[in-house]
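@channel sequence for tomorrow's demo:
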Amino acid sequence: MKHKKIAIIGAGFAGAVITNRLLQAGYQVTIFEKSRGTGGRLSSCRIGKDSADLGAPWFEPTTDQFRQWLIARTDINRWLAPHSDFSGLALDPRTVYMSTPRQNSLTQNLIKGAMLCTESKITDIYKDSQGLCLRRESEDIKYSYDAVIVTTPAPQAIPLLSLAPNLHTVASSTKTTPNWVAIISLKEKSGVTADILSGPHSTLYRAVRDTSKPGRNSWSRKEIWMLEATSEWSDRHRNSDPNSVGRALIKAFEKVIKQPIDTGNIRVHRWLYARHLSVTQEPYLWDPDSKIGVCSDWLDHQDCEGAWLSANALADHLLSRTKASNLYNLQDSSLIPSRV
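structure tokens (generated this afternoon):
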């Protein structure tokens, strides 16, 4: 499949990682993203005159392969973050990794060299005499591809997999849960010593001081926090008004830190397909008849690391009959990092 034309649907972490692998191998890659920019769950947002990470706040590797890849990259910083539970008990500092200046910077770096089509919601994949074609809402894209890789959440992947019934079945069987987050800027310093708060709580999953992360600069000099709700609370309030969700998360945070806070700016967002209950132990999906593949965190492994593992496993499969497969072997501890 060397030097073939590949379409990637979704410019989140999985889409960016497999794009980078294919670009290194000499493939022509076009990415279609329904939003205005890259990142997916690594997206950032504006909060007043500042910005903050809106999705996954960091990478916390559990495998040597992912950890080595993060350490090797010049756009990734390590953060040894002061950590406590919601009762105020100090815990061991948390060692995590993140991209600078924002999490979505990593996806932007990984896809350099590909053609990116933003605000392009793909609604259908179909075949013509030249190969695979895409339909963007009501418009047919006048171009054909040799393969299409879907990296979207499972519910968004379902309508794209009609040509691959087995893949369609896996996506249709995958359960997803939402996740509410609130980004808040404080008019006064909170005085909270820990930068990460987590643990058992009826409402909050974690609270993270975004402005304490390495490489983050607050233009307004304000303290910015990300308040993330638990999956259970988010599911119960799936259809709640964002303003009421924001008030509830702030109230829960005030009880945790035992003081009222005066917020300057608030940004509330619902990640509708944040977490998944997978129905397969396969790290990726590939249909050899249709030439459609899937890599995502809703397969065998979850979260950002799951997206990375899935994208690399599918890339290994696609490149297995070319010399490019030697660039990166997940079974080999000697890894060659992606080039920016």
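heads up for whoever presents: Residues 242-257 form the longest helix (16 residues).
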